[in-house]
Amino acid sequence: MAEAQDAHVKLYWLNKSRAQNILWLLEELNVKYDVELFHRSRETMLAPPELTKVHPLGKSPVIEITPPGSTDSVKLAESGFIAQYLCDHFPEGQRLVPQKWKEGREDQIAGETEAWMRYQYLLHYVEGSLMPILVMTLIISSLKSPNVPFYVRPITTAAANKVIAMAVFPNAKKHLAMIEQLLETAPDGGSYICGKTLSAADILLSFALIAGEHRFDAMGEWPGGSAKAAHPKVFEYIQRLKQEPGYKRSTDKIRELDGEFEEPAALKKRESRI
Length: 274
Hints:
Strand content: 5-15%
Pfam families: GST_C_3, GST_N
Number of strands: 4
CATH architecture of the largest domain: Up-down Bundle
Order of helices and strands: EHEEEHHHHHHH
Largest sheet: 4 strands, mixed
Distance between the termini: 54 Å
InterPro entries: Glutathione-S-Trfase_C-like (IPR010987), Glutathione-S-Trfase_C_sf (IPR036282), Glutathione_S-Trfase (IPR040079), Glutathione_S-Trfase_N (IPR004045), GST_C (IPR004046), Thioredoxin-like_sf (IPR036249)
Number of domains: 2
Shape: globular
Family: Belongs to the GST superfamily.
CATH class of the largest domain: Mainly Alpha
Helix content: 40-55%
């Protein structure tokens, strides 16, 4: 791992994307890295076609790692895979992964600690289950935006609200309830999702939860009048993540490189549930 610390990492960063998670992770790992910036189209919010030169799908995040003294590099995509690879190969990654085995249960089925099992699950859960809900919300909500011709907007708005009420909101309630329960039962009474210390799972969760922070209320009627009232621990957790030194360094890095950092956009009140 000592040699890995001298490797060079390049992050292909896209605004308002999960690439910000990986930038935060790189800050925690204390590795040498460069950032190449890409920006979404203001009209369509899609990634620019130039990203297809980096990866066939034209998505972000993507990282490229060059070992010390070598011109060969490895290029990685998908947030969970990137996080696992970086934590496996860089020394500081060890503190971002919970202890795997219970004492005396090494290499046994069901010998893993609760914290490690949570960690592994959450690395896949974020992209496989949580993010699709938020992406679906963004796509459906676009049917209510000013970009839709005004004479058909009442129809598209009614259709969008129907889909959100039937499919999106019920799932969002399940997800926030589960995350609330995970925080309530964090191992060792910790304030992070896997215990007392920050893990890569917290970092990967950050974008989805910060992106959803001001969107959840627009999905429907929550017990207590708001998503925050219904799930206070989730919203306390979101604020805690935003106060993490590594998160702040990652946002400062983008301000330094790009002139500004814009958190994932919140839905405006006029776009909520017309």
